[in-house]
């Protein structure tokens, strides 16, 4: 629990250190995320809806990664199209792996939750370190990024899963007595803060692991 608390605290500090600058960077994609949440499901599941959703979430994530991991002078640089495409490609691959695990769990019952679902999240959590790397326009090898988490794979998994799940659960419990429309409104408006916090967690974890690897290489 110590590493979860520490990383969550660091993530909150990153978000709160310059909230105006962060909001300026993510205002447009955040608004688009909310609008996408309000759009009928028929559109969301269409080809156009899927492309729009993928682009909006990727742009939002890249802006957050760059806000956390780059200096003030570096943040102003425009994101290259190739960086966006790399990010979308890898994030899609990770989502596919999670989707496969979820489908397998639904088909075969709770046992797979332990022997398939959690290991799948372990793998995708370690693979997710590719995302902040690509968001910064870097092309470090997958092998190097996989090794970053080393013996900390399960800690990384817990860091990326537990805090967002706790927040979502608390919101769900707090709104259980709300009527359907009000509850839906709370879920829609809380989506962006949860996304921002989750991506910041990943950024902080990536930065800490990179710094640890650099210290180890010099010792």
Number of strands: 0
Termini separation (Å)?
Answer: 28 Å
Instruction: Give the structural class.
Output: mainly alpha
Ranges where pLDDT stays below 50 over 5 or more residues in a row are: none
Total of helices: 11
Roughly what fraction of the amino acids lie in strands?
under 5%
Shape: globular
Largest pleated sheet: none
Task: Give keywords.
219 residues; 85% helix
Model description:
With 219 residues, the chain is mainly α. Helices cover 85% and strands 0% of the residues. The protein is built from eleven helices and no strands. Helix 1 crosses helix 10, helix 2 crosses helix 11 and helix 4 packs across helix 11. The two termini are 28 Å apart. The relative contact order is 0.13. The model has no long low-confidence stretch (mean pLDDT 86).
